Amino acid sequence: MKAIKLLLAAALTVVTLQPSMAASATSSRIKDIASLQSGRENQLIGYGLVVGLQGSGDSLRSSPFTDQSMRAMLQNLGISTQGGQSAAKNVAAVMVTANLPSFASPGSRIDVSVSSLGDATSLRGGTLVMTSLTGADGQIYAVAQGSVIVSGFNAQGAAASVTEGVTTAGRVPGGAIIERELPSKFKDSVNLVFQLRNPDFSTSVRIADAVNAFARRTFGDAIAEARDSQEVVVQKPRTADLTRLMADLENLIVMTDSPAKVVINERTGTIVIGADVRVSKVAVSYGTLTVQVTESPQVVQPEAFSYGETAIQPQTDIQAQKTGGKIAVIEGPDLKTLVAGLNNIGVKPDGIISILQAIKSAGALQAELVLQ
Predict the structure, then answer these.
(1) Function of this protein (predicted)?
(2) 3-state SS of the chain?
(3) Are residues 167 and 202 part of one domain?
(4) Of the ranges 28-32, 112-116, 364-368, which one carries the lowest mean pLDDT score?
(5) What pLDDT, in 10s, does the model give residues 233-247?
């Protein structure tokens, strides 16, 4: 036991946090931690064509819908398309998506995303022709058109090719003009409903308390109620202007809270630790076994003036090496102490992830473990 304590003193540095340091609550404005229910965005979608590509568009035989769309567009422009099938590869069929902001008015512009539907290899240098964007109700809310900006590129020769990023998707900044406004109006709302971006009962109650404290000073009565961990409802006073009320409430300062979580991404070796994570007293031992197999075949020659044949004699060398194996007793107020100690004894990120999973299985990790 004395040896274990000495090992712990050498490998782990236990830090005791003061109450003010252990608290995870931070000060934030309401506008930064909650959104207005009536101020939600709406998704738009449309189908269109990108023209002007340098031979990197859809092959019309493999993508018949591109040829049909191109013929329909030309007929709408008064151009006859009777004849054989075109072999041009400067057109690509794309899906166009956008988010319609809340309280958007006709005439304002929004960005759109463009993604290839067929076998086009690149949208670089193309132009999106007029495309209608519809909502979930089937109504047209915006029309998009403009030059497509693609961040990726590709280059190829006879025997090699280089590709960086995604060349079959791009954006048209400010490429859509809003043609129809949303049916609902902010001024028509009877109350305000705040939706927390990170649902938590403590934060929800604190938002209601902050709004009621402001309302008692201004209107003489409480107007907010926390319904659950995500919604806080604010009743509109009779004498208040809804826009000014929202401007005052969204700047109120609230102490936010969050549950203890440990997020692990095993593919990248990323570990994100919450401030309120606690670790009970456990003993940790970690060791790795490395097996190295080396093949060194040798050529065997027959003796002179003999009837033997030249042959290859296999030769295999196997080396096994075991590292680690130290035992340390972990007892810290938070997970930061544990990770610092594991780093001191040379445990790599993949080993730390395995140890954290084992500590959670042992019931000593007082937090939610999220694996991605």
Answers:
(1) Assembles around the rod to form the L-ring and probably protects the motor/basal body from shearing forces during rotation.
(2) CHHHHHHHHHHCCCCCCCHHHHCCCEEEEHHHHEEEHHHCCEEEEEEEEEECCCCCCCCCCCCHHHHHHHHHHHHHCCCCCCCCCCCCCCEEEEEEEEEECCCCCCCCEEEEEEEECCCCCCCCCCEEEEEEEECCCCCEEEEEEEECECCCEEEECCCCEEEECCCCEEEEEEEEEECCCCCCCHHHCCEEEEEECCCCHHHHHHHHHHHHHHHHHHCCCCCEEECCCCEEEEECCCCCCHHHHHHHHCCCEEEECCCCEEEEECCCCEEEECCCCEEEEEEEEEEEEEEEEEECCEEECCCCCCCCCCEEECCEEEEEEEEEEEEEEEEECCHHHHHHHHHHCCCCHHHHHHHHHHHHHCCCEECEEEEC
(3) no
(4) 364-368
(5) 999 888 888 888 899
Residue 366: band (very low, low, confident or very high) from pLDDT cuts 50, 70, 90: confident
Residues 285 and 161 in one domain: no
Residue 64, pLDDT > 60, answer yes
Looking at the fold, whether 95 and 141 belong to one and the same domain comes out as yes
Q: pLDDT (tens digit, 9 = 90+) per residue, 331-359?
A: 556 666 766 666 666 677 777 788 888 88
Same domain, 163 and 221: no
In a domain, 29, yes or no: no
Q: What is the domain extent for residue 117?
A: 42-178
Q: Is the same domain home to 144 and 235? A: no
